[in-house]
Amino acid sequence: MDKMKRMEELCSILTEAARAYYAEDREIMPNVTYDRLYDELKELEEETGTVLAGSPTREVGYEAVDFLPKEKHDSPMLSLAKTKSREELRSWLSGREGLLSWKEDGLTVVLTYENGELAKCVTRGNGEVGEVVTANAKTFKNLPLKISFKGKLVLRGEAVIGYKDFEAINAAMPEEGAAYKNPRNLCSGSVRQLDSAVTAKRSVQVIIFQLVSAEGTELSSSMEKRFEFLKGLGFTVVEYERVTPDTVIEAVGRFEKKVDKNDIPSDGLVLSFDDLDYAESLGRTQKFPRGAIAFKWADEMAETTLKYVEWDTSRTGLINPVAVFESVELEGTSVSRASVHNISIIKQLKLGVGDRLLVYKANMIIPQISENLTGSGSLEIPDKCPVCGGEAAIEKDADSEVLRCKNPECPAKKLKSFVHFTERDAMNIEGLSEMTIEKLIAAGLIHRFSDIYRLSEHREVMAGLEGMGTRSADKLLAAVDKSREVSPDRFIHALGIPGVGLANARNISLSFDQSIEKIMNAGAEELAAVDGVGPVMAKAVSEYMGAPGNREEIERMLPELKFTLLSVASDTELSGKTFVVTGSLDHFASRNELKALIESRGGKVSGSVSAKTECLINNDSASASAKNKSAAALGIPVLTEDEFLEKYQLPMS
């Protein structure tokens, strides 16, 4: 087997084994097997000089910045001329050989390697100037961080998120989130995150489509041979086929048959001359290079009749509309449904039952409505949730209108509520994964939060659930017991009140003497007076606490819990001082934990460095991050975690 492919396979196997063991409390391979495969991967990395970004042998370190710096490209990144004519591709080749490849649908990036390591990654931007996203690129799951080639290497590629990963990310959206519309938008937002830890969770990969330069080596003028060179260094290059004027149309047909099986989103094909010297000699127009052309699929349209709109309540509480129409044949398959996404699109399309629609498959895969030929606008928007029958109301979500179920007890919303309740910054129930919660709900063991603290009554049933067993059940019950000791702020945060994060929960808790009862009885005006809590959040807390079902549930939980009060010093060295925390930590599980310690001693934590900042806490005090640069410019000291704890005589977590 090819060494690079074996490395990719080992990374995938080892990552899945670690996820199963640590996140799901199940073992899919013996430790001895894991160690053997790990050693094999380590040896291959040393042998090839390549380390993939997703490698389990790599120590993960993430970086957060205040903004993405802009940088001008060395040469403009031009768009391609486009055609939907297959015959035009034949004539365009002018008797020469070319490479036909996917036109991946993501975010174009420029990668620079120096001395065998990834030195820089810049987005395409407007073609002239892009954004520097190097820290984020280091988390792309298939991108080599180290390569055997030591000269300066410049590449262009497409950052993408596959359909399977896209669906998994949408399925795991938090309670208050809305599903992402498509992989391209999710990828664009993921690559341009300010915190690379967020990017790392999005399964971004990069498909290389051009080798721009490689200093210190004589490159072949053949694009195909350049691709082979890059594959040998561990890069994933775009899938391509060598074509001539006589074979290009058949090749387009072969790609066409693979569209619905291709996990990577694409919006067409690219035809390039294999002879790059010849391509370069052709020059360019004002807008396009003459050495390549894009082929766009001609969307197959079909006319049909809207039968009805199906409303589906998601885990987030959003009620998503799906148009159901008379079945039509598109791209060789029968289609009868298309997502309409939200209320705004329903209004734009002026939908009504019985309307005549033009439908197609976007990128030959996803059914969509192109046009409403009738435009009656008569569709009734439901005012009740289809799952629980509770109130449904239209709300603004960014620039769109969405329909949301208002019933907090809606079964469709339960799962994500439980997941949030058990998270580290909330009740911190280790081992109670989303998969395990689903099993407990399906078995009827938990219907509300308080049921978690009565799971010991169902130990035998838990042990009999698929994939659990007695050992896992006992381990989970021990974690539940451990979580009974909790600070009031984390309990408030765990309840999942809209807009109330841990910091606001802390301020609310301290303002009401860390008394849950006082918070339950506080009015909106009292809550709005709390630092950082405005009228909207105050209303949300007041309404949540005032709902009879919520009050009863909290009262059921209170006897099960032991509250550990936050230690608040009124006069310490941290009082009235503002700190900024960035980078990874050694003594604290998260920045929130260090933030909690600082706030408990009277200090404040800000997200950006200013003249009022006491110090910047960063274990990489010599890094060139934006926060470090700001601190240096303002004369603000940068302390490592250990230096900070020692200076202010604070305990380690």
Q: Could you characterize what this model shows?
A:
The chain is of the alpha+beta class. The protein folds into six domains: 3-48, Helix Hairpins; 70-295, D-amino Acid Aminotransferase, Chain A, domain 1 (2-Layer Sandwich); 302-391, OB fold (Dihydrolipoamide Acetyltransferase, E2P); 411-483, Orthogonal Bundle (DNA polymerase, domain 1); 488-563, DNA polymerase, domain 1; 578-647, BRCT domain (Rossmann fold, 3-Layer(aba) Sandwich), CATH 3.40.50. Helices cover 34% and strands 22% of the residues. The chain is built from 24 helices and 26 strands. Strands 3-13-12-4-11 form a five-stranded mixed beta sheet. A five-stranded antiparallel beta sheet has the order 16-15-14-17-18, covered by helices on one side. It is globular and about 80 Å long. The mean pLDDT is 85.
A few lines on this structure:
The protein is an alpha+beta fold. The protein folds into six domains: 46 residues, Orthogonal Bundle (Helix Hairpins), CATH 1.10.287; 226 residues, DNA ligase/mRNA capping enzyme (D-amino Acid Aminotransferase, Chain A, domain 1, 2-Layer Sandwich), CATH 3.30.470.30; 90 residues, Beta Barrel (OB fold (Dihydrolipoamide Acetyltransferase, E2P)), CATH 2.40.50.140; 73 residues, Orthogonal Bundle (DNA polymerase, domain 1); 76 residues, 5' to 3' exonuclease, C-terminal subdomain (DNA polymerase, domain 1); 70 residues, 3-Layer(aba) Sandwich (Rossmann fold), CATH 3.40.50.
